[in-house]
Amino acid sequence: MRLTPDQLIYWEIGVFKLNATIVFTWAIMLVLVVGSILITRRLTAEHKRSRWQNFLEIIVTGIEKQIGEVGLRNAKNYLPFLGTLFLFVATASLFTIIPGYEPPTGSLSTTAALALSVLIAVPMFGIQDQGLRGYLKSYIEPTVIMLPFNIISEVSRTLALAVRLFGNMMSGAMIIGILLTITPFLFPIVMTLLGLLTGMVQAYIFSILAAVYIAAAVRTKTRKSQLKPT
Amino acid sequence: MDNMTLIAVASIITAGFTTSVGCMMPALGEGKSVSAALTSLAQQPDASATITRTLFVGLAMIESTAIYCFVVSMILIFANPFWNHVTAAAAASN
After folding, report:
1. Given an 8 Å threshold on Cβ–Cβ distance, is B56 in contact with A3?
2. Is B54 exposed, middle or buried (0-12, 13-18, 19+ CB in 10 A)?
3. Share of chain A above pLDDT 90, in %
4. What is the ipTM of this complex?
5. Where is A71: in which H helix or E strand?
6. CA dihedral B33, A88, A82, A201 (to 10 degrees)
7. How close does chain A come to B81, measured CA to CA in Å?
8. Among A179, A219, B2, B54, which is 20 to 30 Å from A130 by CA?
């Protein structure tokens, strides 16, 4: 049985293999980029707007509000990164309603890449906010003894981020695959429905965890001034 | 029993045991956290956004342990490196 879409190879030349993960990732990128270009080409600020513009505005303002609620002030700064993460993971699991499609997030390579980008983005945002010295100082925050534990936690949470998304997506595809052999007709549809729900929840969790990590890297210095409720 | 049978038996039993323990314990933990969140939601409906978000993040943390167990048992069943090694050795000796 195929565990991941990595093992479904469409085309091969030398060491380069074009597997299903890459193809579906490209397809999602194409849909997202072309779709947003087409929609944002005719933006208006009048009262009469197109449906798609309203749709995009709902998504963007919703993500921005969620980022703000995590505790990141100046949410627009983090919107491109976190919003892209959310939209990619959500679209990847939403497209499972198309027959023959397998979510690229069901491959450990994709989720590891996403988690690595979070691992790199967290220090970048931290340095941007409080400078190199201030950010590095947050590693030895209570005492110097905590330095190895802080580094371990950075690595282990990246691993957990990758494996969590991979396991959820892979288990959804696999349960449907197993059920198809046992009860072929009705039950896999119900599980697909459940998979759509868990896909959305996983997209939310992935981006909100990234936001929480960034907030932890950014906030350390300004914690005292932030005690008032938002 | 030869090595091949031993590895097969150990893999299957361990996979089942991993899944059973990995379902039981996170389920208990998630049930506790959800019940606590529901209690606090009933007490303070105004704080529902914060409570729900924290609940989701916490559930994701708890659930990742279950996912680890799931991934380990899937590896044991479908992509077992020891089994692959033994079958490759058996194919080479034949």
Report:
1. no
2. middle
3. 29
4. 0.70
5. none
6. -10
7. 14
8. B54
